[in-house]
Amino acid sequence: MSVGHKAVVRGIVVGVSPSGDGSLRVRMYTDVLGLVWAFAKSAREERSKLRAHLLSGTRGIFSLVKGRDTWRITGASATQNVHFASSGSSYAQTSAARVLSFVRQFVRVEGSDPYFFETLWNFFEGLPYPTEAIQRDAECVAILRMLAALGYVDPSPSLLPFLEEPYAPSLIKGSNASRAILVKAVNDGMSASGL
Fold it and tell me: What pLDDT score does 2 carry?
């Protein structure tokens, strides 16, 4: 993309690190660009309007501008932070942290994958789930689908319903009966990745 190109994307902040005096480097998974490292000038300062929108676990609409070497974040709207949204459920917060850690560990390069993004987005949209058991199943199905998107899970007939159907509450409710198969597939996928 050319310098100065603007993009308005749905994204999820996966990680944040300080960059210089008061600025941030933000790792974000987006619907259009995939994984992006973006720079947010002065975002750590108290007066920054972007500061609250760039916490790890925040999803929303972000405005990005392509610079010579990197993307810059110029705006954010309709954001929601998963840790604040699920403040009554420590298990949901822990589950969200594990999924964010998975994305940081397994996704390394830019490249859009709509299936991966929709799974990640819908997982966070559903938080917190009604019970700890459903939360555990939602996390398992999300990780399974993301591993499959990355090529680490073979779509066997027993896994196809969890990989082909849209990531939705009805899919999660049906996953408890197949939990052992799903956990084995996730463990095999993680082993196959070598990470």
Answer: 63
Q: Does domain 6-82 have CATH number 3.30.497.10?
A: no
Q: What CA–CA distance (Å, rounded) separates 23 from 8?
A: 21
Tell me how far apart the alpha carbons of residues 106 and 125 are, in angstroms, rounded to a whole number.
Answer: 21
The answer to whether the beta carbons of residues 86 and 128 sit under 8 Å apart is yes
Domain locations in the chain as residue ranges: 6-82, 86-193
Tokens 């941030």 correspond to: 24
Per the structure block, which two tokens stand in for 172? 């999660």
Among 94, 158, 120, 153, which Cα is nearest to 14's?
A: 120
Q: For 51-104, what is each residue's pLDDT tens digit?
A: 889 999 999 999 999 998 899 999 999 999 998 888 778 899 999 999 999 999
What gap in Å lies between CA 33 and CA 35, rounded to an integer? 6
* Numbers of helices and strands, H then E, in the chain: 7, 5
Q: Return d(Cα 32, Cα 8) in angstroms, integer.
A: 9
